[in-house]
Design goal:
11 strands, seven-stranded mixed sheet, alpha/beta, two-stranded antiparallel ribbon
Length: 258
């Protein structure tokens, strides 16, 4: 078994104290898994700041909607706990579920952060979590789904929320499309990127498979696609978005079930 990693996060507590609208313990767990692909090639400080950024965005939506705390939380696509560690630190009394198709990541989050493990699957439409939630977070999940799958994901999240609950997710929006058009990045789509951009400009939701994959790739979504989705639930779904609200390149989208 590979030796565990301890993140060099001496600045973490100070950052959280400075940016949070809630009181958060400064003794966030800094143990990390050597299998965590999100740690590959980046400084520990950046890894930690991305987790803090997600928590800050979540709490911004919560403050806007007058939510003071969450009693039940699901991190959908938890990986090895990049964000879940901060959710656990911020809400130590909450029942936290970590869901992912990566079994090692789910097991690590259960062992290290006390999360209830939930094995996700590619066919998430058939999933049934153990309870409904006050908060569902899904970082960089819809970014890999087709429009039909993305819509299904949001419908599932709405059905899994308690009344007053909030779902927060990240997407590739205008800034990411601009970077593609500038030739800076293709997100691994190679020649398929043209089709993804066409869908983005024509319908507000563009997607293409990775060249070596089927049913898994990269999506680009305009903010008004989410607003049109929310409009299908008049009086039953509130919506907000912060463009470039996560790590200065992912849009952060919030939905609240009244």
């Amino acid at each position: 078994m590979a030796e565990k990693i301890t993140l060099s996060g001496s600045i973490a507590g100070a950052q959280v104290a400075a940016t949070s609208v809630h009181r958060i313990p400064v003794d966030v767990t800094l143990e990390a898994s050597p299998e965590d692909g999100m740690l590959s090639g980046i400084p520990h400080e950046h890894y930690l700041s991305v987790g803090i950024g997600a928590l800050t965005a979540i709490q911004s939506f919560a403050r806007m909607w007058g939510v003071e705390a969450f009693g039940s939380i699901m991190d959908f696509g938890c990986g090895h706990g990049r964000v879940l560690r901060w959710l656990r630190a911020a809400y130590p009394l909450a029942a936290v579920v970590g869901a992912d198709i990566d079994a090692d990541g789910v097991a690590f989050c259960a062992r290290t952060f006390g999360a209830e493990p939930l094995a996700s699957r590619v066919d998430f439409g058939a999933m049934q979590p153990p309870r409904n939630f006050d908060l569902i977070f899904a970082g960089s999940v819809i970014t890999h789904l087709s429009e039909d799958q993305g819509r299904l994901l949001l419908e599932k999240f709405i059905s899994w929320l308690n009344p007053g609950g909030i779902a927060v997710l990240s997407s590739h929006g205008n800034i990411r499309v601009a970077r593609v058009l500038q030739g800076v990045i293709t997100y691994g789509l190679a020649d398929n990127v043209t089709g993804a951009l066409s869908g983005y400009f024509e319908r507000g939701y563009g997607y293409a498979d990775f060249p070596a994959s089927r049913g898994y790739g990269t999506s680009f979504i305009k903010p008004d696609w989410f607003s049109r989705f929310a409009a299908q639930y008049p009086g039953r779904l509130e919506y907000a978005i912060v463009e470039r609200g996560w790590d200065n390149h992912h849009d952060m989208i919030g939905f609240r079930r009244p």
